[in-house]
Amino acid sequence: MNDSYSIIAPAKLNLNLFVRGKANNGLHLIESDVCFLELSDKIFFEFSDNDNFVQNISNKSLLIDDKYNLILEALNEFRFLTRWDKKFQIYLDKNIPIGAGLGGGSADAAATLILLRKLFNRDSKTKKLSISNLYKIANKLGSDVPACLESKSLKISGYGNKIKRIKLSNNYYYLLVNPNIQLSTKQVFSHFNYFSEDLPENKKNYLENVSIYNSLLSSAISLAPQIHTILSILKKLPNIVAFGMSGSGSTCFGIFKDLKNILPIYNYFEDNYFIWYGRMKDYSINRVHCSKMLENKF
Fold first, then answer.
1. Same domain, yes or no, for 34 and 180?
2. Helix or strand or coil: residue 267?
3. Residue 38 vs residues 61, 107, 152, 175, 219: alpha-carbon distances, Å
4. Which of 137, 146, 197, 273 is most buried, taking the most CB atoms under 10 A from its CB?
5. Is 204 a catalytic residue?
6. What is the pTM of this model?
7. Residues 8 and 103 grouped into a single domain
8. 113-159: per-residue pLDDT in tens?
């Protein structure tokens, strides 16, 4: 049985997102405080004679394209940079909802780059690949991918290219509620209006000294009105510290001091909604693990 190499790809939560303008390259300029959650995908790589990509199909709503996805894009870009021709069996255990404003695809791409660098540097007798080279690839793959390489509490600015570490308290529990509606970032930005009227659900509330706010809320609600309903429910929950929408939606979140305040909330939401709760976590870039491949994955 061959060795399997695995890595966690954690979900990114935008505690806030301010759209500040548009750069000359057409990308929107943003500011955002983000943290990473215990919710994560897991990716397995095994050396093989041919490339093959499969994923956990127990939840069909989480299936991604097995021919064109950010994991395979990351692999192709890594090969282009390094000229490394190794082939892999790849297995994705997908848990982060798709098109949910949680950076799942970007997290998968970033984790893939970290894992490939580990294997490449172990395989190469001479030339080693630096972390800075991963950021060059990450910037090509998407604006969220560099932050997902860090997978720590961050302040992001520019068009995702400026990253600074921040300190966030880990004394809270996070509740995620997603109405099982996929929203594309491009689509939400296309409906964005700098002069749109602010919504009651988008008034600033705070997690300690962090403002919870999202400039894209109005445009996301215009595409998925369920977001408005979820936030209205969260707002009324007892003992909630703060609430908001992550990224370009459609995931909403509530922040609580005590786990016992989260457990009764399931009755408030539709049965088919994705609901998760847990803590934030800072991840190490050295999180590649080696184990024996479970044969039933392939």
1. no
2. helix
3. 20, 13, 12, 11, 28
4. 137
5. no
6. 0.94
7. yes
8. 999 999 999 988 778 999 999 999 999 999 999 999 999 999 999 98
